[in-house]
Amino acid sequence: MRHRRCRQARRSPAKDSRRPDSPWRVRDFRTLFTATALSQFGTNTGYVAVPLIAVSALDAAPGQVGALAALSTAAFLLIGLPAGAWVDRMRHRGVLITADLTRAALFASIPLSWWLDTLTLGHLYVVVLLTGCATVFFDVGSQSVLPHLVGRDGLVRANAAVVSLIAAGNVAGRGAGGGLVQLLTAPVAVACAAAACLASALRLTAVHRTPAPAPLLGKPARLPAQIAEGLRHVFGNRELKALAVTAALSNLGSQIINTMLPVLFVRQLHYPAGVLGLFWAAGGVGLLLGARWARPVAARLGHGRALGLAGLCLAPAGLLVPLVDHGPWLWLAGTGWLLALFKTGMDNVLGVSLRQHMTPDHLLGRMNATFRFLLTGALAIGAAVAGLLGELTTVRTTLWVGGAFLATAFLPVFLSPVRARRSLPQQRRL
Fold first, then answer.
1. Cys-Cys link to 406, which of 51, 251, 253, 339 (CB 3.0-4.6 A)?
2. Phi-psi region at 376: left, alpha or beta (left = phi > 0; alpha = psi -120 to 50)
C-alpha cells in the first residue's frame, strides 16, 4: 500500500505541472479566443471579397489590384511603430473593441455603396487603408495582452491555439468568402464580414483581466524615444533580428503571390471565385497543420532546430505555386502552397513564443509593433511590387518572383544562433 502511494506521488507532480500551462483554464483567454475567431472570419471573408469586387465589378487592372492590396497593409508602415508605444499606454481591451467596431463600420460601407450604385475603386482604397489602421491596433493589442492573460509558462500553448485559429480562419473565412461571392454576390460577403467584426467587439466586452497602463515614473519619455527603444531591442538581438527578417521575407513572397492570384484565377484561367477560395483555403490548412505540429516537433528537436529544419525541408515548396494551371497543375500548385504555409504555421507559433519570452513586459507593445511594422510592411511592399511586375512583365513571372522569396526566406534564421536553440529563454515572471 505504501509502495502504491509512493508511485502515485511520483506521478502526480508531472501531471500537476502540466495543468497550469494550459491557457484554456483562463476564462479571459477563452473569451479572447472566440472573439478572435469571429474577427478572423470577418477579415478573411473581406480579404477574398474586396479584391474580387475590384476585379469583377470595377474592372480593375493588375496595377490597381496591387495598389488595393498595398493600401490594405500600408497602415503598418504609416503608424505601425508609434502604435506599439500607444498600446503600451492604453488598456488593451478598449483598443481591441475600438478596432473591431471600426472595421465593422468600414466593411458595412461597401455593400451600402453598392446598393446605392455609388461604389468606386477610390472607395475601396479608403476602406482597405482605414481597415488596415484598425488592424494595426488589434494585432499589436492582442499579442501584447496574451502574456498577461496566460502567463509566460502558457505562451507556447496559447500561441499554438491562436495560430491554429488564424489558420482555421484562413480556411473557413477565405473558403466561405469565395463561396459567398459565387453564390450570393460580393456585397453580401462583405456584409457578413462586417457582422462578424461587430460580434467580435461585443464578445470582447466580457474580457476583464487586462493590465492597466504601466505607471509613468518621472517625466514621460517622448514617443520617438520609446519607438527607438523598441527598435534597439529587436535589432540589437541577433536572434530577434533573424526572426524578423525571415518573417518579413516570407510575407513579401506570399503577398506577391496572393496579389496576383485573383487576376490569374478569374481573368486568365477563368476559374470561378469558389476555386480561388479553395486554393487559399488549402494554404489555411497548411497553416493549421503547421501550428498544431509546432509544439510536439519543438519538444523533440528543440525550438531552434525545428525552425531551421522546417525551413530547409518545406520552404522550397513555394516554387511549385507558380506552376498553377488547369488539371493536375492546380493540384500540384495547391500542394506546394499547403507545404509552404505549413512551414509558416510552425514559424508563427515558435517564433512568436521566442520573441515574447525574450521581451520584458514594458516592451511587449513596442516589440510586437516593430515586428508587425516589418511583417505587414513587407506585405505592403509585396503588393506594390506585384502590381508593378504584373504591369511590366506578366502575371506568371510575378508569381515566380514570389515563389523565389518563399523558397529562400528561411535562410536568416537557418544561418543565425536561433538554429542552435534547444529551448525557450529563461522566462520572466509577470
1. 253
2. alpha
